[in-house]
Design goal:
mainly alpha; globular
C-alpha cells in the first residue's frame, strides 16, 4: 500500500520532515492510496477536470474585456507594454496546451490513435476534457508519474489538473480565501496561523516554522493564551 501523493498528506509530509529535522513527534495520520491516490483525491481531480472548460471560458472573457495597463509612473515600466487581456490569453494557452499535451501523452502510453482535429479552441478543450475524464482513473494509477508528490513541478496528472484549476480559480477570483487566525503561533509567536477552506489543520505560514495544529490543539492554545492574559491583568 502506497502513501497517497496528493495534498491530503501535505500536513503529514511536513510533520514527517520536521520529525526528521529535529525529532519533533506528531500524531498526524497518513492517508493511504487506493491503490495510488486516495478516493478523496481521485474524486477531487475528476471534479476539477470537469470544471476546466467553463473556467477556460471565464479566463477568455477577461482576454476580451481586459483593460489596458496604466502608462503613468516609472516603476515597473517596460518598453513594450502588454496589450489588453494578455495575461488572460497566456493563461488560456497554458491551460489548453496542458490539457492537449496530457491527452497526447496518455494516447501514446495506451497506444491509442492520434488526437483528432477538433476545430475551434472550445471544441478542443471540450474534446480533451472528455477524453481525459474517460481515462483519468487509469492515469491516476498507471501513468509513469502517478506516484509523484503533488507540487508545482510535478508531472503527476492529478497535480497538473489541480495546478491548472487553481490558476484559473485565482485568475477569475473564485479561489477560497485563507482564514487568518489572529493568535500568535505557539512556536514562532508570529501572527501567521492560517487555515484554508476544507483543510483539516491550522498551519503557520512562516516558512521557518510551519507548525501544524489540529483544531483541538489550536483551541487549547487559545485557552492558554487567554488564561495567561487574565493572570497578567490581575497581577
Amino acid at each position: 500500500m502506497k502513501v497517497c501523493p496528493g495534498p491530503c498528506n501535505n500536513a503529514w509530509r511536513r510533520a514527517e520532515q520536521q520529525l526528521a529535522q529535529d525529532g519533533t513527534e506528531h500524531d498526524i495520520p497518513v492517508t493511504w492510496g487506493q491503490p495510488v491516490h486516495c478516493q478523496r483525491c481521485t474524486s477531487r481531480t475528476h471534479a476539477q477536470l470537469a470544471e476546466l472548460p467553463e473556467l477556460v471560458v471565464a479566463i477568455s472573457l477577461e482576454a476580451v474585456n481586459g483593460t489596458a495597463p496604466k502608462t503613468t509612473g516609472t516603476i515597473g515600466r517596460t518598453a513594450n507594454p502588454s496589450w489588453p487581456g494578455q495575461a488572460a490569453r497566456l493563461l488560456t494557452d497554458h491551460v489548453v496546451g496542458g490539457l492537449v499535451e496530457l491527452e497526447d501523452d496518455i494516447r501514446d502510453l495506451r497506444r491509442l490513435r492520434h488526437r483528432p482535429g477538433r476545430g475551434t479552441e472550445g471544441q478542443g478543450v471540450t474534446g480533451a476534457v472528455r477524453f481525459l475524464a474517460a481515462h483519468l482513473d487509469w492515469a491516476l494509477v498507471e501513468h509513469p508519474l502517478a506516484g509523484e508528490v503533488h507540487d508545482r513541478l510535478s508531472g503527476n496528472p492529478a497535480a497538473q489538473i489541480h495546478s491548472w484549476h487553481r490558476a484559473a480559480l485565482r485568475f477569475t477570483r473564485r479561489d477560497a480565501r485563507l482564514e487568518h487566525h489572529r493568535v500568535p503561533c505557539p512556536r514562532c509567536e508570529l501572527l501567521t496561523l492560517f487555515r484554508g477552506d476544507g483543510d483539516d489543520y491550522i498551519e503557520c505560514r512562516n516558512i521557518n516554522c510551519q507548525t501544524l495544529l489540529t483544531p483541538g490543539e489550536y483551541l487549547e492554545h487559545t485557552r492558554r493564551l487567554a488564561s495567561a492574559q487574565r493572570a497578567t491583568a490581575a497581577a
